[in-house]
Inverse folding.
């Protein structure tokens, strides 16, 4: 049953709505007509039954009158029917079919016999009832009634007809509306499809464009990489020339002591510059692990004026305008100093005929909060807009080949943004340049003055060192250095090996490389901390994502390449800290 | 003189005949109608159960005293059948015979009103529909024939009938000139 209904419904759904509406209208009209016909038929039937009943009642009431031949009594009974306006006439016939009583409302002469009356076809409804005395028929009653007047009936049917017509009209309107809606829907679908196609096309174009942009970016990257590697190669070759040449000289026999010392110094100096160069590269790449400390910028700049004076030479006047409003900042002291020095050197180069270098500090309010601005202003040649736009690009330089690395400002920019600040350049060609280093204010406590009792000598502490290094050459070199410093050295080539060694016997300090296959130095430090919480761990690395990203977890970091002094100091500090801790515990 | 006399004599004779004959003709048709009516009353009367005839027994129509109908009423009664019972006519000179007790309907006509009334009183012992005729006198039974505007009509003393246990159909009452309730 349900399936049939569903199928019928589906069939109707598939039909065009106009046809459906027409069908429904036809059905409604047919139903209306049927209702009217049915109503008329049932009215007729009812009326004829009613007439029959009236005739029967009359017949029953005049049995005695007819029986006794009392025409007057029969007439009285017949006259009583006049009250009913629909009764057209009544005739009462005796046993022989002769009319004995009755009336006709239209006043015409009634037909005298039953047979004649029966032969006449009446327009109304006629009922006949026998007058029965017992089982014997002693007469007949004929009673004619009008049907309801035509106008009354027409009025009644007109109401039904009107209702049917209105229903049909409603269905028609609904059908038309439905048809229009469907057409609108179809148009909408077509438009949606067109839109979808357009969207697909657009997406395709976007993809193409993204691909093209990616290719362009790749090309630019390759270009930048070429520039970078070229620059590094150039600078490193210069330094290597010095180092190699000095080393060659040192291998010569019978070299005098003072020359030997000079060549060794040259090697140390060149290596230092090379280290600074890689440090700058890393700072630009923002991969250099910063060692932020709380710095009073004004104090630092005051301390730098002598250095700047010497660096710039006597043709330059240095003027400082330090604001009392400045706050403390948290930054890597060496990087900040290097940044100021870098900008100062750029300023000097922009003023070939000498001039004034002004360094000012002030507190400014930026969107992210209060900041300290270090403004270095020169009275030099200035820069045009294009130069300003490219000034922070690595290896972009306006200086003659060999005079600058092109890494200065880019290093400063890297440092400033890594410290949460910014670098801005204001310049007018021919009038000079101002470079602003912006660093966020810190609410940390001011640096406590380091109390150093003059009599105390920081004697190098000697201890058992667990040295972890996967690179054989660096490992051997470091081991040699540590032994030179007087430490007892145990070497491990991986984190696992180091853990084993640490479990076997006690160490005073651990020096571990960070980047190692398997367990990293940081992971090793965490493991060791679980094993011996008081065992100090010093991390050493040339570059480490992990340290740049997550920091060293408060552990000291020794950056490669490192000098003997740096190694001695960091180990000494670590041993001292461990001793203090032990002392506090006991 | 002779023709005048003859004319007068003839006129007188004719008038006398007319005077004599007119009631006679009226009388004949009137009596025939009454003779036809009386057996029909049976149908419109309800008797007490004890009085109703047994299976195969007729209704007894008694003519007590004078009989103004003769064979007419015998014929009318013969054609009448009420609920399967025939109507039988019995004639009695007065109400003395014991058989009068079986009468369902009694037409009573005494020699004079006194005699009629006496017979009616006798019949009041039993549930018998009594019928009298104004032509016979002033004494009234339950149904009392009268001539109204030349037509045979009747009055009904329904109260008397009800007291005797005789029920008269309302259809019959509807035909009465006057009904005493």
């Amino acid at each position: 049953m349900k399936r049939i209904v569903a199928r019928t419904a589906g069939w109707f759904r598939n039909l065009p709505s106009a046809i459906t509406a027409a069908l429904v209208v036809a059905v409604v009209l047919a139903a209306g007509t049927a209702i009217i016909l049915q109503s008329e038929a049932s009215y007729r039937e009812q009326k004829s039954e009613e007439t029959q009943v009236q005739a029967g009642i009359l017949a029953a009431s005049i049995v005695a009158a007819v029986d006794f031949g009392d025409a007057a009594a029969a007439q009285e009974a017949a006259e009583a029917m006049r009250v009913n306006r629909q009764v057209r006439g009544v005739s009462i016939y005796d046993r022989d079919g002769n009319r004995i009583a009755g009336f006709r409302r239209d006043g015409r002469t009634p037909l005298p016999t039953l047979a004649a009356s029966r032969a006449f076809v009446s327009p109304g409804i006629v009922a006949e009832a026998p007058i029965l005395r017992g089982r014997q028929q002693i007469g007949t009653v004929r009673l004619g009634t009008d049907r309801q007047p035509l106008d009354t009936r027409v009025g009644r049917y007109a109401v039904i007809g009107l209702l049917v017509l209105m229903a049909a009209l409603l269905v028609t309107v609904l059908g038309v509306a439905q048809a229009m809606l469907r057409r609108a829907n179809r148009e909408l679908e077509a438009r949606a499809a067109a839109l979808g196609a357009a969207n697909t096309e657009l997406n395709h174009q976007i993809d193409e464009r993204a691909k093209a942009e990616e290719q362009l970016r790749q090309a630019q990257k390759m270009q930048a990489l070429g520039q970078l590697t070229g620059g590094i190669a150039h600078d490193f070759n210069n330094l290597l020339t010095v180092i190699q040449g000095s080393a060659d000289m040192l291998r010569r026999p019978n070299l005098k002591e003072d020359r030997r010392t000079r060549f060794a110094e040259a090697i140390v100096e060149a290596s230092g510059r090379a280290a600074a160069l890689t440090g700058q590269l890393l700072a630009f790449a923002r991969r250099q692990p910063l060692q932020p400390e709380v710095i009073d910028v004004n104090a630092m700049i005051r301390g730098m004026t002598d250095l700047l004076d010497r660096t710039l030479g006597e043709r330059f006047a240095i003027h400082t305008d330090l604001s009392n409003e400045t706050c403390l900042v948290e930054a890597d002291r060496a990087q900040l100093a290097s940044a100021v020095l870098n900008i100062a050197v750029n300023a000097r180069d922009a003023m070939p005929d000498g001039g004034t270098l002004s360094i000012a500090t002030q507190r400014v309010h930026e969107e992210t909060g209060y900041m300290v601005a270090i403004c270095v202003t020169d009275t030099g040649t200035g820069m045009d807009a294009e130069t300003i736009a490219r000034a922070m690009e690595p290896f972009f330089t306006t200086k003659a080949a060999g005079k600058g690395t092109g890494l200065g400002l880019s290093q400063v920019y890297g440092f400033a943004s890594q410290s949460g600040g910014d670098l801005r350049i204001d310049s007018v060609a021919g009038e000079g340049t101002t470079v602003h280093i912006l660093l966020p204010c810190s609410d940390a406590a001011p640096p406590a003055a380091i109390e150093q009792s003059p009599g105390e000598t920081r004697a190098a502490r000697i201890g058992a060192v667990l040295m972890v290094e996967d690179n054989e050459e660096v490992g051997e070199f470091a081991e040699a250095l540590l032994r030179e410093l007087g430490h007892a050295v145990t070497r491990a080539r991986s984190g696992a090996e180091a853990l084993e060694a640490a479990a076997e016997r006690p160490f005073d300090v651990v020096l571990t490389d960070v980047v190692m296959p398997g367990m990293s130095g940081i992971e090793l430090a965490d493991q060791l901390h679980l094993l011996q919480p008081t065992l100090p761990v010093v991390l050493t690395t040339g570059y480490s994502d992990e340290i740049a990203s997550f920091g060293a977890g408060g552990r000291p970091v020794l950056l490669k390449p490192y000098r003997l002094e740096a190694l001695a100091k960091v180990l000494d500090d670590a041993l001292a800290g461990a001793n203090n801790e032990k002392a506090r515990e006991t | 003189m002779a023709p005048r006399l003859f004319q007068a004599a003839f006129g007188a004779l004719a008038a006398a005949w007319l005077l004599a004959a007119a009631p006679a003709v009226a009388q004949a048709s009137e009596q025939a109608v009454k003779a036809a009516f009386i057996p029909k009353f049976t149908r419109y009367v309800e008797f007490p159960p004890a009085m109703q005839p047994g299976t195969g027994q007729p209704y007894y129509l008694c003519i007590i005293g004078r009989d103004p109908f003769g064979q007419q009423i015998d014929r009318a009664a013969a054609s009448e059948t009420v609920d399967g019972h025939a109507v039988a006519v019995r004639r009695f000179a007065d109400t003395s015979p014991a058989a009068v007790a079986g009468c369902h309907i009694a037409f009573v006509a005494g020699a004079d009103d006194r005699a009629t009334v006496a017979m009616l009183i006798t019949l009041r012992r039993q549930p018998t529909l009594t019928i009298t005729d104004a032509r016979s006198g002033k004494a009234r039974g339950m149904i009392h024939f009268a001539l109204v505007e030349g037509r045979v009509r009747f009055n009904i003393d329904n109260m008397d009938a009800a007291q005797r246990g005789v029920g008269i159909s309302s259809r019959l009452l509807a035909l009465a000139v006057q009904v005493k309730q």
User: Anything to note?
Assistant: The beta strands of chain B are 45-46, 59-65, 81-82, 85-92, 105-109, 129-133, 143-148, 151-157, 167-168, 178-180. Helices of chain B lie at 2-41, 71-78, 113-123, 158-164, 170-175. The interface with chain A takes residues 33, 37, 40, 43-44, 81-83, 151, 169, 171-172, 174-175 of chain B (CB under 8 Å). Residues 11-27 of chain B have pLDDT under 50 and may be disordered.
